[in-house]
Structures are given as structure tokens and as C-alpha cells.
Amino acid sequence: MPKGRMQNMGRHKLWRAQVKKIRRKRLRQKTAQERDALLEEECRRQEMSPTYQAWIAEQEIIEKFREEEEERLTIEKHKEWERIEIAAQQEWCLRKLRAEKAKKEREEQEVIEDSKGMGGRTRKDKAPGGGKEERTRRKTEKTGKSHISDPMIESKYNQEELMKEIIDFVEKGGERPAFASDVSETNPNMPVCPFFSKTGACRFGDRCSRNHPRPALSKVVLLPNFYSHFGMDQSMHDEYDTDLMLEYEDSETYQHFRFQFLIVCCEVEAKLCQYQIKK
């Protein structure tokens, strides 16, 4: 068979394959269109049928009933919540009235007891220093025991005594309060850190292998990371690079620290003066 004829036969086979492919595609499209048309016709027929119309009406009624039921339940829950809230408020008011009444009766009883103990006086002594707290404090000082029946007054009295002891220790150099005698230690079984004992601070902090004893009350205030300088930061990060520190001098760093320290001291003193004036 000649070569040209064989090439024509090969082209004819390819053409027939393409034609068959296009024909199958058209048949699939036609079948899909017919199926869609039948479905649309079926849907229209169902929509026009009385049975479908009745089902639609029934579904609308059910949906409306469900919405009304949800609204009714919501209203009932809201009314129940209002009822519970009103009952809780009434109960709270009753408890408040009972507490006030009990407090008033207790105060009257204390006044009667105080009046019996002070020679038959029947009312409170309203002169300065003659109130219930002052009388209780005087009794405590005389007997050395607490006769305070009200926990709030007792707590207030204890706080006042505690603050008095702290102020005496910090400002007047008095004895250390009993509660401040305890010392917390980071490593009790290790020797004391020499840096911490001299300056009250250590570069390793609580990770130090030595012991850092800290009193419960001290006259020294430590402010970590209070002062920072670029030269100090570089010396810490590049402590093995000696050439870098040639750009900074210790005297300049010291002068900068001294200047900032004086500024902070002035501001703190001004704040303390304002606080004392307001107090």
C-alpha cells in the first residue's frame, strides 16, 4: 500500500474518532436537557395538584404554630425570671433589714452594758476619745486582753497597732515588729552570698547557688532594673570584648547614674510631701 494512502487512512481514523466524540457529547447534552424538562414538568404538575397545595398549607400552619409556641415559651421564661428576680430582691431586703435590726440591738445592748459598767450612764459618751472603740482600747491596755466583740473593730484596731509598729521601726528606729522577725531564705543550707549581703542584690537572683536571706520588713527599698545604661548593657553582653568598652568611661556612667538618682530623689520627696499634706 502506498505511503500517502496509509497517511490518509490514519487521518480518517482520527477524524472519525473526533466526530464520534462530538456526537456522544451532543447526545449526553440532549438527554440531560430532556431530563431537566421532564423534571420541571413534574414539578409544575405537583405544584398545581390539590394534594401538594394542601401539603404546602399544612406546612405553613405548622411553621406558624411553631413560631407562636416559641414566642409563648420565651414570654413564660421571661416572666419566670422576673418572678425569681423579684423574690430574690425581697429576700435580700428582708435579710438586710434583719441584719440592721440585729446590729441595732447589739449596739443597744453594748451601750447598756457600757452604761452599767460606767456608773449607770444610759447613753453613749460622744465626747472626743469617749466612743466605743476608745473605751475598748483603754480596756485592752489595762487588762492586756482583747474584749472586742465586733470582728471589724478588732481587725481595724490590729491594723492600727501594726502600722504604728512599722512606722516606729522605719522612721524612728524602734524595735523590729514581732511579725517581721521571720527571714525567708533561698538556700538555707548554703553560705550567704557575699554580693547579696553587701548590696542587697545579686546578678543571678534566686538562681544563685548561695543563700539570699530576706527579712519580712526592711528599711531598704529594692527596685529591680531601676537604672539602665547603654554602656552597662554592652559590658554585660560583650564582657569579653574589651575594645568595645573603650568608647565608654566609668566616670561618664557614674555621672549619668548620679544625675538620674538626684532627679528621682527630688520627685519621690515631692510625692511624699504631697501625700503627707493630703493625708
TrEMBL record:
Residues 104-116, 125-148 have a biased composition (Basic and acidic residues). Keywords: Metal-binding, Repeat, Zinc, Zinc-finger. Residues 104-148 are annotated as: Disordered. A zinc finger (C3H1-type) spans 187-215. GO terms for cellular component: U2AF complex. Residues 187-215 form the C3H1-type domain. PROSITE patterns: ZF_C3H1. One of its GO terms (biological process) is mRNA splicing, via spliceosome. It holds the Pfam family zf-CCCH. It comes from the Eukaryota. One of its GO terms (molecular function) is RNA binding. InterPro entries: U2AF_small, Znf_CCCH, Znf_CCCH_sf. Signal peptide: none annotated. This is C3H1-type domain-containing protein. It comes from Ladona fulva (Scarce chaser dragonfly). The lineage of its organism: Eukaryota, Metazoa, Ecdysozoa, Arthropoda, Hexapoda.
